Amino acid sequence: MNKESFETRELEDIPPERLDVLLSLFFMHVRKLDGGEYEPQTLTCFQVFIVTFVKWASRIQLSISDKEFEKSRTVLESKRKSLRRQGKGQKPNKAQPLTTDEIEKLWEEKQLGGHSPQSLIRTVWFNNTVYFGWRARDEHRKLRFGDIQFRRDVGDDQEYAIWLFERGSKTRSGATEFCHDRQFCPRMYATGNDRCPVKFLKFYMEHHRPEEMRNPDDPFYLAVIQSPKSSVWYKRQPLGEHSLGNFMKSMAKATKLEGRKVNHSGRHTMLSALRQAGVSALDISQLSGHKNLYSVFIILWYTHT
Description:
Elements: H1 16-29, H2 40-58, H3 70-85, H4 100-108, H5 117-132, H6 138-142, E1 148-152, E2 159-163, E3 187-189, H7 197-207, E4 222-224, E5 234-238, H8 241-245, H9 247-255, H10 263-276, H11 281-288, H12 293-302
Antiparallel strand pairs: 1-2, 2-3, 4-5
Helix pairs in contact: 1-3, 2-3, 2-12, 5-7, 5-10, 11-12
């Protein structure tokens, strides 16, 4: 460790000018545990996270664009250019969030709605992703009928659906069932309009499922009857993993949406909407199920680059 990089103070106690020097050294030399280089976008997330933390912890008004961070900005941009020349930063397979116009198109072309068994189950899947923050397949696939319940708070007529049981995911063990490892149980509130998410969820759970598939431990997503001859639209068997994993891809193809739209696009859409609404990264991480804020910053950066 050279003299220039030696520092014993807490991060929030380091003056901006000194922090600028340390950030410059950090961007020049940081590597993964295996010695490999990070993606250019990841280095930018490091920059955002560090400066944001210092601003919060020290109560000092700081911005990455301040003149105090001019040197580290220059070093970072140089490093990003170097990494791109090495082929880093190319994300052709990155899931892209849906725009407001694209979501509107899915409704207008009846890919979403209650027009058919397929459109209804896709609508339920999309709303579960957006309102509960579920991952593309992981949490959807493990869901059981009794994991979601409909409620009203005392003295409040607004109905909502609440996700009570977490059965484990990529980052959550599911060891504690009731109310998850998260700090709260995610809710989906009724909106009272034609696209009310609770209305479509109740249609699916209470009106179009077979009676014998409404036990708490029954699989939530059921295979579709293509041409139903009654109010029962779904089979007495779980929806296949392949079918569940291709919901967004099929809808995007049918409506000719541009860019790479896959199931994970729904989750990115939720994260993007919360960010634009000014929700803090901490609150977003609680809904999305991420264990650390760094993961949230990475995703929020990817959804806006």
